[in-house]
Amino acid sequence: MEIAPLVISGPGKYVLADGGELQVSVESAPGEKTALIAEFDGSLIDFPLQWRTIQAGDRFHPEGAPGGKKLKSFFIDQKIEKEKRRYLWLLAKDEILWVGGGRRCQGYRPEAACGRVLRFAYRPGNPHENGL
């Protein structure tokens, strides 16, 4: 079953198809970052964004990596099982910005002086319990 993309039109709380949740806010300075929280420089990226699953041909440049690669290859390198890959959420604009609950892309890291930080806090759901 394919999961329809969710348009992130601005700050707010978004309930996901798998029962999870994405809390989106605009902050004045960078804050806490964890695997479930990602922040981006709001002067470089703006709404709308998409919260979606993998699509054929997706490419990703993981932060700290020397270059980009196919998202499928990244998942294989990270030893993410094939069955789980189709349920992983991705934050995207013109490129994959964040693998929800995992790695963010190269670039767009907010600096203290950027003044506008887009903050994404993800609470995973359970796709198997929610009919996906």
Describe the structure.
The chain is mostly beta strands. The chain has one domain. It contains 2 helices and 10 strands; from the N terminus they run βββββββααβββ. Strands 1-5-8-9 form a 4-stranded antiparallel β-sheet, with no helix packed on it. A 4-stranded antiparallel β-sheet has the order 2-3-10-4, with no helix packed on it. Strands 6-7 form a two-stranded antiparallel sheet. Strand 2 (12-15) and strand 3 form a beta hairpin. It is globular and about 40 Å long. It starts with 5 loop residues before the first strand and ends in a 9-residue tail after the last strand.
List keywords for this structure.
132 residues; four-stranded antiparallel beta sheet; globular
Strand content: 25-35%
What is the chain-wise order of helices and strands? EEEEEEEHHEEE
- Measured as a percent range, the helix fraction is under 10%
The helix tally amounts to: 2
Write the layout of secondary structure elements.
Blueprint: E1 6-8, E2 12-15, E3 21-27, E4 37-41, E5 49-52, E6 59-60, E7 69-70, H1 71-77, H2 82-85, E8 90-92, E9 96-99, E10 117-123
Antiparallel strand pairs: 1-5, 2-3, 3-10, 4-10, 5-8, 6-7, 8-9
Short précis:
The chain has 132 residues and is mainly beta. It contains two helices and ten strands, in the order βββββββααβββ.
